[in-house]
Design goal:
Blueprint (H helix, E strand, L loop, with lengths): L12 H4 L4 H37 L7 H17 L4 H27 L1
Protein name: chorismate mutase
GO molecular function: chorismate mutase activity
InterPro entries: Chorismate_II_sf (IPR036263), Chorismate_mutase-related (IPR051331), CM_bact (IPR010951), CM_dom_sf (IPR036979), CM_II_prokaryot (IPR002701)
Length: about 110
């Protein structure tokens, strides 16, 4: 039987790293950042859902390709400034934008019912 701690989705960094305090410290920081990312994404989607409802109410299209292009360019520049791979950033933002558009299309469909 393995002496490793079994994986648990509710485990913390400290109880996943055994007796290595350096690794536990790194993992705790990563866990905190991951939690912040989730909360920030949740807030972002709350706002974009309100945008989708507004667009549906005033009959604006769900997607805004010009804004999407500007946002991708802006985030690519921010990524370069932050020493983060701009390709990764663009893929990440594209994933979020596609999900937002899907929500906006759903809101438009609900408004038309």
């Amino acid at each position: 039987m393995s002496s490793e701690t079994p994986y648990s989705p509710h485990a913390t960094a400290e109880n996943q790293t055994g007796s290595d305090p350096v690794l536990a410290g790194f993992r705790k920081s990563i866990d905190n950042i991951d939690a912040a990312l989730i909360h920030m994404l949740a807030e972002r989607f709350r706002i974009t859902q309100a945008v989708g409802a507004y667009k549906a109410k005033v009959t604006l299209p769900p997607a805004d390709p010009d804004r999407e292009k500007r946002q991708i360019e802006r985030l690519r520049q921010l990524s370069e400034d932050a020493d983060l791979d701009p390709e990764f950033s663009e893929k990440f933002l594209r994933f979020i934008i596609d999900e937002v558009i899907r929500h906006h299309e759903k809101a438009r469909g609900a408004a038309q019912d």
